[in-house]
Structure formats: C-alpha cells, structure tokens
Amino acid sequence: MDNSEVSARLYKMAEMLEFQGENPFKIRAYIKAARNIKNLDEDVNKIFERGELEDIPGVGKAIAGKVEEMLKTGTFEAYERLNIQIPVDVGKLMEVPEIGPRTLQLLYQHLGVESLEDLKEAAEAHRIRRLPRMGAKQEERILNALKSLDERSKLNRIPIGRALPIAEEIQNTLDANPHIQNVVAAGSIRRRKDNVGDIDFIATSTNQKNAIYAFTHMEKVQEILGEGTTKGSIIYDGNIQVDLRIVNEESFGSLLQHFTGSKEHNIRLRDIALSRGLRLSEYGFTDQNTGNLHPCRTEEEVYRTLGLDFIPPELREDRGEVEAALSVNMPHLITIDDIKGDLHVHSNWSDGKNTILEMAEAARGLGYSYIAICDHSKSRAIAGGLSEKRLIEHVSEIETINEEFDDFRVLSGVECDIKANASLDYSSDILEGLDLVIAAIHSGFNEDRKTLTKRMVSAIENEHVDIIAHPTGRLLGERDAYELDMNAVLQTARDNNKVLEINAFPERLDLNDINARSAKEMCISLAINTDAHHTSHYKYMSFGVDVARRAWLEPDDVVNTLELDKLCKLLGIEKH
Ligand code: DGT
Ligand code: CA
Ligand code: CA
Predict the structure, then answer these.
(1) Atom of ligand 1 nearest to the CA of 262
(2) 199-205/231-236 β-pairing
(3) From CA 34, how far away is CA 570, in angstroms rounded?
(4) Domain ranges of the chain
(5) Are 393 and 383 in contact (CB under 8 A)?
(6) Residue 152 clears pLDDT 70, i.e. is over it
(7) Is any ligand 1 atom within 6 A of the Cβ of residue 159?
(8) Residues within 5 Å of ion ligand 2, judged at the Cβ atom
(9) What is the per-residue pLDDT for 154?
(10) Is residue 576 predicted with pLDDT exceeding 70?
(11) CATH class of the domain at 3-155
C-alpha cells in the first residue's frame, strides 16, 4: 500500500468509529495520523523498514501497529472487524452535509439506510420526516443536499477541452521559472481522458522551496490548499485543483509513471513487479530480498524492468494494454501527423463564420490535402440550413473554388438531418449529386431508445450516407448521450460498410474512447473530424486524435489518414 491508500483506510476507520459513537479522542487520533501520513514526503514503507513509524507525528504505538499490519497484509484486523459489523456506507453518507454520525445511526436503525440510494429513496417516500428529531424541513434539506452533491460530482469533473489549455498555461509559467525543470502534467490529463478531476504536475528543481513557492504564488491562484517542501496544491482560476510534486532526477521516471496512473493500471504493474520479487512504488523498485531501492530515471526504464513494451499513457486504463505489452503486441497508435484532411467542416453558407475559400486555404496551410464542406440541411433553419436550391449553388461554388488548387480538394458535402420519422432531409437525387453525405440527429433527443435507434439505423442503411456524425449526441458536462442501442448501430454500420465519426469538437468527443474501440474491433472505419465552424477550430483535431488513441486506433482504422485518391476510391467520389 502507498501513502494515500494507508491514509484513506485510516480516515475510513475514523468515520466508522464516529458512526459507532466511539471515544472522540480515539477518532481524532486516527484522523491526525491519516492526515500526517498523507502529507509525508517519503514512502511510508521506507519509514517502516527503518523501524521509524512512531516518529511520524500523530502516529503512536497503537496506530503504528495498525499501519504495520496494513503494509504487510493490505488491511488491519480492527478495520475488517468493524467493516463487517457496519453494513452502512459511512464514508459516502457522511459526505451529505446534512448527515452526521447521530443522524446516520437514526436512519440506519429505523429505516435501514445503508447507502446514498437508500437515503434518496427514504427521503422521496417521505419516510424521514416521521423519525424522532426529524421533520418535513429536515427531509427537504436532505433531498436538496443529495441533489447538489449529484450535480457537484458531475460539475467537479472538467472537460479536457477546458483543462488542457489551463494545464498548458501553468506549464508555460513553470517552464519560465529558473528553479524548475522537467515540468510534465501527469494523471488523467496525460492519459488524455475526456474529463479530469484535477491537474497533477511533476517537475524537478534546483531549489525546491522556491519552486513550490513560485507555484503556489502564481498570478491566478485562488486558494492555497497545501504547501510542503516537495509538494504544493492549489485552486487555480476557474476552480480547478492543481497539484505539483517536486522529485529528484534519479527517480523522475518512477514518479512520472506512478502519477500518470491510472490507479487500475498501476495495480496491474505492481502485481507483475511482485512476481519478479520487486515492490513497485512511486519511488522506484524495492528488491524484496535485499530491501534495496532502485529508482528509475525514465518511464521507459520502469516498463523495461517489468519486461514490458513501453505503454503509451493513453492506453493505461487496464483495458488489455498490459497483456498487449507482455506479448509484444502493442498497437501503433495514430498520431496527428497521420491526418490528411477534415471531412466535417462548416462555412458561412450555414452557421460557420468563414467562407468556403477561407476554410480551404486555412486547411491547406495546415498541410491537409482535402476538406469536406458539410453545411447544415434545410430542416435546421436556425443554423441556416440550405434549401435544395442553395445546396445546388453551394456545389457549383465549390467546383469553382477547386479550380484554384492543384494540390488540394474541397469535397462537396452536407450534414444532413435525420428527421423524426427517420427519413433524411433531402431526396435521393439531391444527395446523389454530392461527394459526401454526413448524417446526424439534431432533434428529438428525448425520444425513447427504440425510436432513436431506428432513426439511426435507417440513416446508416441509406445508400447515400457515408458517415454518421457525432453518433451519440452527448455534450460534455451539459447533455448526456441520447438513448441508443449502440450494438445495433455498430452492427448496421459494419454490415453496410459505413464510417462513424469521432467528432473532435471539445464539447463533443463523440464517439467516445469506449465506443470507438468497439467500432474498431468490429472492423468499422472511423473518421476524425473537427466540425469546424471557424478556421481556428481546425486545432481541435488533436482532441479527436487523443480519443482515437485511447480507443487503440491505428492509422488504417481512420479514413482521413488516406491520401485523396484512396479516400475518393473508398467513398466512391468521382475524380475531377
Ligand atoms: P482524476 O484526477 O480523477 O481525473 O484521475 P487521476 O488518474 O489523475 O487520479 P488522481 O489525480 O487521483 O491521481 C493521480 C495518479 O496517482 C493516478 O492516476 C494514479 C496515482 N494514484 C492515486 N491514488 C492512488 C492509489 O490509491 N493507488 C495507486 N496505486 N495509485 C494511485
Ligand atoms: Ca488527476
Ligand atoms: Ca491529484
């Protein structure tokens, strides 16, 4: 167990004791020990090996014994005993501001409340107001507290599109500091998860104290949560928690690996280490026979020592990457340099901000060979959807523009609405005249699963449709994916040889990593498109590539890695 795990278990013990109505001194002792172990600069295992557990402030003889038990067995007896005695999820329930240990006792004994779900059910059924010392007001306060807890846990996660620019801003500030070197954002942000809980930096320093001070005193710091000799923790502008750890160069690789996570991935690595007689921690490998610590300077060294291929951060989720690395079977993940064009771009013919020519020139400037202009279809009046007549004019405008280029092609496309009755927004003869048809659902999100799936399936089966845009309709932190039988969608796409989009617009990232990986496994091709409404939106391509990497995609899985002629062949586009 590492420091944070030991500390978490001590905290949980304190909560359970509180629930039992134990002696407050005993409870406070656990909390103090938990806090001090969490804030240690050194691995608690090392301190234990030196026989110095009792030197940790707040750790007396009794708690030192429990820590020793944990380090040897992963838990301690008193905790296990209490945990069996108390069926109640004390930790989660005490997070509700209205609920203290006495109320919890009452709820458990009278109503059998063991979990947050039980609590919600009891409150909604108005059973709480009838308890002694409770009333309708109290019950309503609990319901409100539950609601805001739910919202906060959603709000508390930050979409990567918001977190990454902030991480880059902080990175630049730290890089400019003469006392700080090797700054890397680790954690879920390095794994490019589509939403992150906080931002975890690690760095080396020639002057640790100055480095931490500089970090906690950056201009946009709202609050300092902690300031030690090797770590600092702050709330940054925008209400985002940011942590910084300073590490020695000798163990930089070990710490970077540990703090990149995920936790699940690290647990797998720890097991592999143990099978080789080594204990893996954020400080390095400890030989279990000699007790010697071998810190790793690079992450590559960590994986090499375990007999594993290097695993890219985006794959570190314990979703098969460890097995792939053991069998020397890692995928060759797609990179941004593989992208040859963007197949979902808007212009000012509908709700985009730039002309078709401007969109084309900007894309060409990025080194792309093609884009597809896919403005909205006629049903989307608020987005300036094109009437049949305008669509035909749009196609000839694109033909004229193409005459200006010999190394670049604008494909004429449309983002065609899938209407409520599952039909498309234009007739077949109109769709036939286009190079590319992207179909999407933009309305009726609240329909039931059967209806929405049917709309999607009919669109995929339509012979003129090439790509399904943002297939689940989710908006990060705003709107959940609509109800959809994803399996049916994937099977239909496979059977009809259709392409599914990874929409790279940072609010969408749709398909997500999990669904995109299922698509790959079913041999369905994907397209990574920005849905740009402005030339500046082309930069979002990297967010889509990140999703693709987390989905294990290789260049061959993505149609817009193809050169123009191969793409045209694949999509049946006429050459000009
Ligand atoms: P987040 O911030 O919720 O998006 O997710 P992460 O993965 O960034 O998690 P965070 O910030 O709690 O911790 C950063 C890394 O530190 C995590 O990916 C793995 C490592 N870590 C944290 N807690 C534990 C733990 O209890 N056990 C192990 N083995 N590693 C941990
Ligand atoms: Ca994190
Ligand atoms: Ca963190």
Answers:
(1) 18
(2) unpaired
(3) 60
(4) 3-155, 158-246, 257-326, 336-571
(5) no
(6) no
(7) no
(8) 187-188, 198, 200
(9) 62
(10) no
(11) mainly alpha
What tokens does 434 get?
Answer: 């286009």
Q: Output the pTM of the full model.
A: 0.79
Among residues 514, 546, 564, 563, which one has the least CA distance to residue 336? Answer: 546
Average pLDDT, the chain: 94
Q: Which two tokens stand for residue 71?
A: 């380090």
Cβ atoms 537, 504 nearer than 8 A: no
User: Is residue 150 scored above 90 in pLDDT?
Assistant: no
Q: How far is the CA of 157 from the centre of ligand 2 (A)?
A: 10
The three-class DSSP label of residue 467 is strand
For residue 327, count CB atoms less than 10 angstroms from its CB and return exposed for 0-12, middle for 13-18, buried for 19 or more.
exposed
Cα-based angle 30, 32, 34 (whole degrees, multiple of 5): 65
Q: What is the pLDDT of residues 177-207, one digit of tens each?
A: 999 999 999 999 999 999 999 999 999 999 9
Q: Is 19 in the pocket of ligand 1 (CB under 6 A)?
A: no
**Intra-chain end-to-end CA distance of the chain, in Å:** 64
Mean pLDDT over 216-233 rounds to 93
Residue type at 180 in one-letter notation: I
Tell which atom from ligand 1 comes closest to the C-alpha of 198.
2
The protein residue with its alpha carbon nearest to ligand 1, atom 3, reads 197
* Pocket test residue of 5, 44, 188 for ligand 1, highest count of atoms within 8 A of CB: 188
Each residue's pLDDT tens digit, 339-390: 999 999 999 999 999 999 999 999 999 999 999 999 999 999 889 999 999 9
Residues 6+ apart with CB under 8 A from 250: 295, 297
Mean pLDDT value of segment 99-121? 91
- pLDDT number for residue 478: 81
Q: What is the 3-state secondary structure (H, E, C) of 340-408?
A: CEEEEECCCCCCCCCCHHHHHHHHHHCCCCEEEEEEEECCCHHHCCECHHHHHHHHHHHHHHHCCCCCC
Cβ within 8 Å of residue 487, ≥6 positions away: none
Ligand 3 center–CA 243 separation, angstroms: 6
Percent of the chain with pLDDT over 90: 86
Q: Which residues of 2-41 are buried (b: 16+ CB within 10 A; e: fewer)?
A: bbeebbebbbbbbbbbbbeeeeeeebebbbbbbeebbebe
Report in angstroms the alpha-carbon separations of 505 from 191, 350, 460. Answer: 18, 18, 22
Overall fold of domain 257-326: Beta Polymerase; domain 3 (3.30.210)
CATH number given to 158-246: 3.30.460.10
Give residue 568's identity as a one-letter amino acid code: C
Which CATH architecture describes the domain 336-571? Alpha-Beta Barrel (3.20)
